[in-house]
Specification:
9 strands, 9 helices, alpha/beta, about 290 residues
Length: about 290
């Protein structure tokens, strides 16, 4: 009993020292490269400067000591502009997602973040979408217009439909608004799942534990033929798809046969090469949101 407790104590000390080193290395790299990207944005539109931004996020994961891989469904189309609906795990989610999605994509941030000196200017310059603190009708109409404007411009948008980071690793209930809008706009939904990230870093803890992060890019769901009455069933369907790989990892569900058909990749170039598509900073709307 005493030996077991001693080993656990040594392991926690090792995790603590390792975490301090990794946070320091990753933080310095992130800060320095962000400053370079901000300087570069004065000369080149960030929309057409996607490669160095992806390199930044992918390299942060490398320096933080976490292996990363992508698995994608045969029906996933990297050329289509879409709403990427993903589970929300920790602060590394934007880096993980940006490293995985093989097209130009932007996320949403609280409106208050855009007021933070330097950082707020950067996320605004890079095209992230401000989310109002209040959820009144007018605020939600404003958010809806911002998202639709990005989609109309050929920019896919990341949505954390839970609205918060998971407290226990599971995928919690999705909020309804984005699914009503998807049915209204007829824009395709690309369900997306992050696994292994909760084991690496979790809310309320600064420790970074050994893990492998895997991102699942699921088959896209068409919404052109859907109406307001279909929003709830769409929400439940997308939640089930996103949650299934997480439940498998947590031992809460048996292996799903369809996940075995997913292909493996280490990044967007491999996905485009495998599917015979061309990597481009601007994706195709295919007339879904005009």
């Amino acid at each position: 009993m005493g030996d077991t407790q001693d080993r656990l104590g040594v392991k926690k000390i090792w995790w603590g020292v390792r975490s301090v080193v990794l946070w320091t290395i990753g933080g310095v790299h992130f800060f320095v490269v962000c400053m370079l990207l901000i300087a570069l944005s004065f000369f080149k539109d960030p929309r057409h400067n996607d490669k160095p931004q992806r390199w930044l996020f992918r390299n942060v994961l490398r320096l933080m000591g976490v292996p990363f891989r992508v698995r994608y469904a045969p029906g996933f189309d990297p050329r289509r502009t879409a709403l990427f609906i993903c589970n929300h795990v920790n602060l590394f989610d934007p880096m993980v997602i940006y490293s995985a999605i093989p097209q130009f994509v932007r996320g949403m941030e609280l409106e208050s973040h855009f007021k933070i000196p330097a950082y707020g200017w950067m996320v605004g310059k890079f095209g992230n979408i401000p989310v109002p603190k209040k959820h009144g009708k007018e605020e939600m109409r404003q958010l809806s217009r911002r998202i639709q404007s990005a989609l109309d411009d050929g920019t896919s948008v990341i949505v954390f439909a839970e609205g918060h980071r998971t407290p226990d690793g599971r995928v919690h209930e999705f909020q309804r608004g984005i699914f009503r809008w998807a049915c209204q706009w007829g824009v395709p939904i690309a369900p997306m799942t992050i696994t292994g990230s909760y084991e690496f870093s979790r809310k309320g803890s600064w420790l970074l534990r050994p893990s492998t992060i895997t991102v699942f890019l699921h088959e896209m769901i068409e919404t052109r033929s859907l109406g307001p009455a279909d929003a709830e069933s769409l929400r439940q369907r997308v939640h089930a798809i996103v949650a299934r790989p997480v439940d498998e990892v947590l031992g809460l569900a048996p292996p799903a046969a369809e996940l075995q058909t997913y292909r493996h990749a280490h990044g967007r170039d491999e996905i485009h090469a495998d599917l015979g598509t061309q990597s481009s900073p601007v994706s195709q709307m295919d007339g879904v949101c005009g």
